[in-house]
Amino acid sequence: MKKIEAIIRVSKFQEVKEALHAIDIDFFTYWDTVGVGNEKKRKGSYRGQDTEFISRRTLSIVVRDQNLQKTIDCILDTAYTGELGDGKIFVSTIDDSYRIRTRERGDDSLFIKD
Predict the structure, then answer these.
(1) Which residues contact 93 (CB under 8 A, 6 or more apart)?
(2) Which whole-number Å values give the CA distances from 74 to 5, 20, 37, 94, 112, in the listed order?
(3) pTM reported for the whole predicted model
(4) Which among 28, 27, 31, 79 has a CA at the least distance from the CA of 55?
């Protein structure tokens, strides 16, 4: 199993989400992320302090090994604009997972069997 963390433009999130659903990647978590990168930064204010930040959305997806490359390709193709700030994808290994409700473990815990 692998964990994919993808940092993408907020404006591409809906398109990426729909593309992931189209390839049967139906469960992932996401949250808004603020960071700095190589592109020009927007100035803003946070709690009265001037800041420079880039708004992004981070997706966290755990997939079976057999779904890794198609998931990465989907994100690469869909989140791409060709401009600085398109984002990053990080892949790490997951040792194990459990579905709490059924106590299924490993690959079986990641999808619903018919």
Answers:
(1) 1, 2, 3
(2) 13, 7, 23, 20, 21
(3) 0.85
(4) 31
Domain that holds residue 35: 2-106
Whole-number Å distance between alpha carbons of 58 and 8: 6
- Tens of each residue's pLDDT in the chain, 114 residues: 999 999 999 999 999 999 999 999 989 999 999 877 666 555 555 556 556 677 899 999 999 999 999 999 999 999 999 988 899 999 999 999 999 999 999 988 987 765
CATH number at residue 98: 3.30.70.120
- What stretch of H or E contains 68? helix 68-79
Residue 113 counted as domain residue: no
